[in-house]
Amino acid sequence: MAILLAGSAMLMAQDKANVNGKWILTVMTEAGGTTMPTVTLKQEGEKLTGHYSSLTLGEAEVTGTVKGQQVEFAFDAGVQGISLHVIYTGTVKGDTMSGKISLGDLGDGTFTGKKQ
C-alpha cells in the first residue's frame, strides 16, 4: 500500500502544469476573427497572476488558477465602449495549451498557445 501511495504522489507531482513564462496565443472567435495575443503568467502553487496584451483587447492584468493540467485565467477589458469579462479555460500539455475563451456578450471562441 505504501508503494502505491508513493507512486500516486509521484504521478500527481508530474501531472502539475508549469505555466510560468510568456505564451503566444492564437484565438479564433465565433465571429470568424483570429487574433494573436500574448500573456505572461506567474504561477505560485495553484495561483496565477500575469499580464495580457493584444491589439484587440489592449493591456490587462490577469488572475487565475492552475489545477493539475487545467488552467483558467481572466481579466476585464473594454472594446468599442463595451465592458467585457474575458475568461480563458484550457488544458496544458508541456509547452502548449488549448481550450475555450468566453468574451461575454461578444460570444465565445477557442484558443491554442505555445510557451516561448
Protein traits:
63% strand; Lipocalin; 1 helix; mainly beta; 116 residues
Structure description:
A hairpin with a 2-residue loop joins β3 (38-44) and β4. The protein has an eight-stranded antiparallel beta barrel. It has one helix at residues 2-14; strands at 21-29, 34-35, 38-44, 47-54, 58-67, 70-79, 82-93, 96-102, 108-115. The longest helix is centred in the N-terminal third of the chain and has 13 residues, at 2-14. It has 116 residues and is mostly beta strands.
> Can you give the helix content as a percent range?
10-25%
Question: What is the CATH homologous superfamily assignment?
Answer: Quinohemoprotein amine dehydrogenase alpha subunit, domain 2
Structural class: mainly beta
CATH architecture type = Beta Barrel
| Beta-strand residue percentage | over 45%
User: What distance separates the N and C termini?
Assistant: 41 Å
- Alpha carbon gyration radius: 16 Å
Mean pLDDT: 89
Largest sheet: 8 strands, antiparallel, barrel
CATH class: Mainly Beta
**How many individual domains?**
1
What is the topology, as strand order, of the major beta sheet?
Answer: 1-3-4-5-6-7-8-9
Shape, please? globular
Order of helices and strands: HEEEEEEEEE
Report the count of strand segments: 9
SS element count, helices: 1
Taking pLDDT < 50 over at least 5 consecutive residues as the criterion, the unreliable ranges are 4-13
CATH topology: Lipocalin
